[in-house]
Amino acid sequence: MISNPYLPVAAEIISIIKETKIDFTYRIKCDIPVVGGQFFQVSLPGIGEAPMSISDFSDGYVDMTIRNVGRLTSEIFKLNVGDNLFIRGPYGNGFDLLDFENKKLIIVAGGTGLAPIKNVINSFSHSKNRVKSFDLILGFKTPEDILFNYEIDEWSSLLNVILTVDEKDESWKGNTGLVTKFIKELNIKTDSDYSVIVVGPPVMIKFTTMELLKNGIKEDQIWMSFERNMSCGIGKCGHCKIDSKYVCLDGPVFKYDQAKKFVD
Amino acid sequence: MAYKLNSEKFNDVIGRLSEDYDIIAPALMPFEMHHSNQDVYGYRKIDSFKEIVIDKKTFFSPKEFLFPPRETMFYFSGSQIEEASYTGKNIIILLRACDINGLERIKKIFLNNGDVEDTYFQRRLGKTKLWLIECDEGFDSCFCVSMNSNKTDNYSVALKFTDKGIYANLNDDIFLDVFKSFDKIEEYRVSFIEKNKLKVNVPLPENVDIDIFDNFMWNEYTQRCIACGRCNTSCVTCSCFTVQDIICDENKNQGERRRVWTGCHIDDFSLIAGGHDYRTKNGERMRFKTMHKIYDYNKRFGENMCVGCGRCDDVCPEYISFSKCINKLNDIIEEEKK
Predict the structure, then answer these.
(1) Is the pLDDT of residue B336 over 90?
(2) Counting one residue from A and one from B, how many pairs have CB atoms under 8 Å apart?
(3) Which of B76, B112, B245 to probe the A interface (max A CBs under 10 A)?
(4) What span, in angstroms and rounded, lies between the C-alpha atoms of B107 and B237?
(5) Which of A5, A45, A84 lies at the smallest CB-CB distance from B245?
(6) So what CATH class is A97-259?
(7) Spatial distance between the Cα atoms of B98 and B196, rounded to a whole number of angstroms
């Protein structure tokens, strides 16, 4: 009897961090080996199942930053420490850190797109000798939407972080404007040493990539992570197919020289 | 090994095999047409030879016996999760070459796409035997020859139904016992149709340029398609599904997780959390389906997904023709090459 790949296992919630009103980070007990950028199929029996990206992990735990947007997530938001999430996975390729070792690393993240890349940021911000340089541009809709405040402060002390919001409020003293506005400030020179990661909503990815190319980054120097509503995570349900690729099997991380040929 | 039987004897074969198998064949399904209580032809369990309908094409394909429209995956009781068991009988499906090839296409998705096999498809497939029905000439909307799916050697028994009797060619010794008492004949060889009324020209993958995805030709389908999804549900090669959980109304602790058919023409197929939808126009959905059936599946698996059964043309309430769409696409690609 082959094991059933759809069968989830219970994973206990060991902490919940309220990042914003609608984004909570759930730390679950988990010993399954994972790679940053991969995702789990997360479910509650009787409620539903959905793909959730892994925002960070270490020995014995995995973090997933979940936004309260639907039927499943609104039920997850009612859970407490000690309750269980049901998971299967991890699925997808994730980010291969070797692609960024000894490079001039630029990461541009928009909104919740920061979650799947957070582990990569932490990997390099704590051992900066592994990259030649590290610039991080983070964009959020409003100051209230900013995720991982406590860690952004830490990153700011270790590397060049540009934090911006689309719409400021009275208390906001920082940058305002879309992330694309700040790419010029990096003074990018045409150089084979750059590796760039872009994560965020589809429109943000599109315009950020255009701006990067305009500033001299080559197509094969850009990595991006795709979001689709997979029902299976294992190449069967069809929801995540784009062209001949399956985001759950061949992605969610793709290089732009390949991804530019994808038409949804 | 080939045998000739009259209809009475074939009826006996069905009777004998029915002890161990459910025999599924194209047959009349009275009053099962949606909306109007009309008759429809489809695949269902039969008990006698006279129920088999050879001269009509079925509305739905036989895929539902390997991939049902709704299938329970797990039962929940509190936080206990139990795999739904499968206790169905062995089945024999009587079907044509296009459909056998169609089931091969979805088998690739369920068993060979990615490195894990789909439990639910696998366990049904393990209980299934395919009996080929030879086609005399095909139907008006068939284009299997253009899709190279008019032939197959993947069957246990091949059957030819003629006025003079039924010819059976055995390909699987498991059925020797039921046939061996009949007249053995030498001259029967399985044959396949070599020509359809329709000819479809499928563009070669290397000639497909990304520009064609944005071509104006898809706008027509935004006007015409009503996103009912009949083309998806009738297609023998459409394998997409969505997973849903339900809770029992009387006891919130009891529930199940199941998968249900969905399709790329159906609303919400490409919707993600937060409300972004990758394909809102019906023309985009037609383009997505078309390119999957005749282009990108081929890039991934080395053969086209569409088998040319023509059911999508038969069932579309807006009279959209997939075969015409492929030809139109090919004409544009050929034109642009010049």
Answers:
(1) no
(2) 121
(3) B245
(4) 9
(5) A45
(6) alpha beta
(7) 12
B10 pLDDT higher than 90: yes
Could you tell me which residues come within 8 angstroms of residue A113 by beta carbon, excluding any fewer than 6 positions away? A199, A200, A201, A204, A225
What pLDDT score was predicted for residue A2? Answer: 59
CB atoms within 10 A of CB B102: 29
Residue B146: CB partners within 8 Å, gap ≥ 6? Answer: B196, B198, B199, B200, B201, B202, B308
Span A114-128, average pLDDT? 92
Q: How far is A256 from chain B (nearest CA, A)?
A: 15
- For A84, the closest of B79, B117, B271 (CB atoms) is B79
* Distance from C-alpha of B182 to C-alpha of B10, rounded to nearest angstrom: 10
Report the distance separating Cα B190 and Cα B179, nearest Å: 17
Q: Helices H, strands E: what count in chain A? A: 7, 16
**Which position has the higher pLDDT, A62 or B181?**
A62
State pLDDT tens for residues B171-189. Answer: 999 999 999 888 888 778 8
A97-259 shares the fold of A9-91: no
Q: Helices H, strands E: what count in chain B? A: 10, 12
Write the CATH number of the domain with boundaries A9-91. Answer: 2.40.30.10
Can you tell me whether residue A128 is helix, strand or coil? helix
Domain boundary assignment for chain A = 9-91, 97-259
In B34-120, beta strands by DSSP E: 40-46, 70-77, 80-83, 90-95
Task: Over range B39-67, report the average pLDDT.
Answer: 94
